[in-house]
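Batch 3, record 17
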Amino acid sequence: MALTEKDVRYIAGLAHLELGEEEMRKFLPQLDAILGHIEKLNELDTARVEPMAQVTYPAAENPALRADAPEPGIEQSDALANAPDQGAGCFKVPSVIEKD
Amino acid sequence: MAQETQLAPEVRSRYEAVIGLEVHVQLLTRSKIFCSCSTRFGDPPNSHVCAVCLGLPGALPVLNREAVSMAVKAALALNCAVNPQSRFARKNYFYPDLPKGYQISQYDEPLAEHGWLEIDSGEQMRRIHITRVHLEEDAGKSLHEGFADSEEKSYIDLNRAGVPLIEIVSEPDLRSPEEAYEYLTQLKTVILYLGVSDCNMEEGSLRVDANVSVRPSGAEKLGTKTEVKNLNSFRYLQKALAYEVERQIVVLEAGGGIEQETRLWDSRAQKTLGMRSKEFAHDYRYFPEPDLLPLAVPEVWREEVRRTIPELPRAKEARFESECALPKQDAKLLAASPATANFFEAAAKLSGEPKSSANWILNDLAFLLQEMGKSLEDSPVSADQLAELIVLYRDGKISSKIGKEILRTMARTGKRAADIIAEQGIEQISDSGKIVAVVRDVITANPRQAEQFRSGKTATLGWFVGQVMKATNGQANPQKVREVLEKELAPR
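Prediction for the assembled complex:
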């Protein structure tokens, strides 16, 4: 299977990445090789294998549930401590709404 | 290409609207769906957050059992089959209020499927099918307005990130904006009865998106649909859908084609507008959430939840009609919200007068509350206070006119009916002796009218009743007054 430049541009777009010509030449064969490897794995028939089968087991009820009891999280100041920009107790980001 | 032109009715009638609704309902758990942060609304921004809902690296989600119970409750009440096993999936997209870069939702194995909800579409009842009910987490809140630098910046509050939601997806069974409105009303009522959400649209705990298409009336094939978002009130829903249906017909009539797109309702412009950026071509790259186990809802749990489902609006309405002998319209109004239904049932039980209770609640009390800008939930007159008033009226202690005044005083002062009557000395006069005395006085004072009555102008009787009521400050029992007058005025 051969990945095309169009495929790579599309995936890059979904990941909000802009690739230059140089990078395209570099990444196209790399991605193609990775997908080739996955393709190899696809030869295995996993139709009857549950995702996460290694940790599921039959039980009367899902044991991994939490009770609905609120507990304090972290302070607002700690939550915002690493934010590049903040104000009024909020994270500040470049405007994301379409303005006329 | 906005259309301002009104569509001619004969053109409109050649088309049929096909509408499906996706309704998001915030569940009333105390903590979030995948972490223990509080879900309380209205607190300072980013004060209910932790490593999990902030999407910090390495944090792992743990599912809230109560969120599942509430979702199952809603699914069962909507006649869905609850899947014994369902699975969470990641929905990938970038938006600043989604810190992880994906929303944990459900995709190909939802919690519940194949349900239905009955709506009243004019004359007959119609079953609107429900495709699925699934669990997911809410995103945070983006604030685009109100700050000095709002032109360049959006503000993000993540208190809401991770609050549990259920998404209820209907089949495209709705045939008009009115039906969509009725469906949403009915859905909201059921959810309110279940107590799993407060369905407060202003606070965003009930959100609606619509899939809209049109096709020639009678056609089988579905037209191309658009998704209409931003329908954050019942009023907007109907307006936006009506606009969108009309817009699509105009496009088709002009020989154009409908573009499959997401459109936003702009309540100021009263239009739906296509989103300028066609950014995400809706490629969410769903895949199973590896951090969570498949969700098992065994029969025991499901049935335990089923037992907590209260009598639902339709059943209540039917019972009010049959058991309490109420007109259909009244039964419907009383069953329209759990608050009203509970109030009515309490008043009816305490007074033993369901019919009278319905009348007082739907007329006098409703009017009074509207005047005071209150609802039944914060009614200054409680159900048992109203029941006392109703009993006093039934026993002839007060006239209906006085009753209305007492109700007003009760609402204002919070006093009980009996106390107001004792204080103001306004108990109804049913004592014949007293009434006869007043009646005789009135007749003596108005010989001309008395003569008219005796000469056959019996319509004068009403006038006399009025005079007697006036003379007694409205306290005389009108029934008694009428009886006594007829006797006293009879030709001797």
